[in-house]
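Continuing the series of single-chain predictions for the mutant panel. This is the parent chain; the variants come on the following pages.
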Amino acid sequence: AAIYAAETTHKSKDRDQHALNRLLPYFRGRSMVSIRRADVRAYISARQKSGVSLSTVRRELRFASAAANYVRIEREIDLPNPFRSLRIPESESRVRWLTRPQVDRLVSAAALYARTPHLPAFIRIAVNTGCRRGELLGLEWSRVDLSRALITLEAAHTKTACRRTVPLNADALAAVLDLRKWCDQHRPGSPWVFPSSTTSGHIRWLNTAFRNACDRADIHDFRIHDLRHTCASWLVMAGADLYTVRDLLGHASITQTEKYAHLAPSRVAAAVALLDEKSPG
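Parent structure:
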């Protein structure tokens, strides 16, 4: 895993480290030749029993498999890979979203004890743009066009390695302006929209503060990534077509966007109603 992490460049290093942190307590000290697929199945079972979703476990094992394959090929070592092709069943796509009053409550809870505007602003921008956590936290001011109310995500900054431009509506723009004002006063010269208070870099995690805000707002089973689901859900329910939602969120394919289709039943009903019309002739 260390070799793979040191010698490869990709956009999921933080997620890979998180996966490694989960794998190490279970497999630390084991040689690869001693790990059997039954051991990996036991790991899957243990993670599920602890309440972790299959999609999360799949990502963890995908990292382990990629690391083993990389070392086997690049270092030309006859290394077994017990993590590959496990055929973990796909779990149903999670679509957890909030209503607008719930988001307002969450923003207020996030601002309640905050010393900076970062978390409440992050929530407001995320639900109004659909951007991923990493896309926002790694955003530089040079890619924010306040006069045109746009942010630019270059290929290097997106999960799908595709450049996209994201418009800012009134609430998202107001949140960005709050951050601009704070940065001018407290972090002048910092290139980051979400600058770290302890380093010259940017904030990387908001998990603990976000969970605390959710608790204060009495919102449960809600994760940071669900802000992205909330944006997509609002768009579909407002009548936006799935292809527009796909482009805004930067999905690799329309298949990823189709999980929101059930939120627009009126469109399906309108289509079926066409059958009631008399056909020509």
